[in-house]
Amino acid sequence: MLEDLNANVRGAVMETLGKLEAATLAQHGAALVAMLEDSNADVRCAVVATLGKLEPATLAQLGATLVARLGDSDADVRQAVAQTLGMLEPGTLAQHGATLVALLEDPYAGVRGAVMETLGKLEAVPTLQLGFADGLPCRSPCSEPQT
Asked: Which architecture characterizes domain 7-130 according to CATH?
């Protein structure tokens, strides 16, 4: 059914798999990862949402695979990936911080919001990764000029 010609069927399969317990779902990890290449963006979103139901340790093993989907052509998929990465433990998530920070330039507000929420789960994001040339945080336009 994962290879059904109808995207609605493939999406329904993903939703059904998402109802499985995390341990059972993990047994289907390879098939789920393969579905990240589906031609239909809704199916890819459903796959990412389903992967987000894995235990953080299992999800961590798929971190690089998920990060690669941050370049997806569909904004909803990028947003879903950013949200799913937020389920990783902070130490694992930090490994992908620079890639997430780059998505703060995404043209879609939903993606940027999901990235901000995910980055907010980190204890600290080095200023260098945020791209401040002088290493200093930027001030609000309303900030008082420093003397």
From this structure: Alpha Horseshoe (1.25)
Identity at 20, one-letter amino acid code: L
Contact of 90 with 121, CB cutoff 8 Å: yes
Residue among 42, 43, 66, 44 at smallest CA distance from 54: 66
Under the phi-then-psi rule, with left for phi > 0, alpha for psi from -120 to 50, and beta for the rest, what region is 69? alpha
Task: Collect all residues with Cβ–Cβ distance below 8 Å to 101 and sequence separation of at least 6.
Answer: 115, 119, 125, 129, 130, 131
Tokens 């579905």, residue? 35
pLDDT digits (tens, 9 = 90+) for 33-83: 998 999 999 999 999 999 999 999 999 999 999 999 999 999 999 999 999
Q: Which amino acid is at 117?
A: E
pTM higher than the cut 0.85: no
Q: Domain boundaries in the chain?
A: 7-130
Which tokens belong to 90? 């902070």
